Amino acid sequence: MAKGGNIENASSDLNKNLEADFNNFIRGAILDLSREEDPISPIDTGFFASSWTASTQRPRPNQAREDHPPWSEIEPSMKRRPADNVLVRPRFANKIKFNFKLFSKVYIGNRSEYAATALASTRSQIPQYIQEKIRPLVNATFTEKKPKIAVGAKQLKGGKGIGPFADPTREFVDYTNL
Known about the structure:
Elements: H1 10-33, E1 52-55, E2 107-110, H2 115-119, H3 126-141, E3 150-157, E4 171-177
Antiparallel strand pairs: 1-2, 3-4
């Protein structure tokens, strides 16, 4: 927010707004890559889709599904369709501080040890996401005119998100910005 409209604060305000937009963009990309509905990441057990993170250092793909319950208990289907009890629950989204500074190099990566194989999967929509969907996300995030009106579009059950949205007993309203 502008500090009383003083022109001397314009540069500081602009930097704060750009930094907030930058962090919102990173959060949006991680949540896009981690979604279960209309998935971008290939989903078998849900571990790969749940393992996206962001850092100023390259995330290392060194975490095995077998070492992380509840995914270790899910039997992969290996039949070009998700397993019966698939679980997509972003593991790192709540742990990222999202205080990345402008002009810092930020890596969005996956921590699952089979990340390279999953990226090359025929079910992966990640190359298409990078080529076709990143630009609209950038345009929607880095804009001077943010949407101010939102309409409650549909009711959602909890259990498919992070934080309070992970509680399957809660109900939420999905809002659409106008």
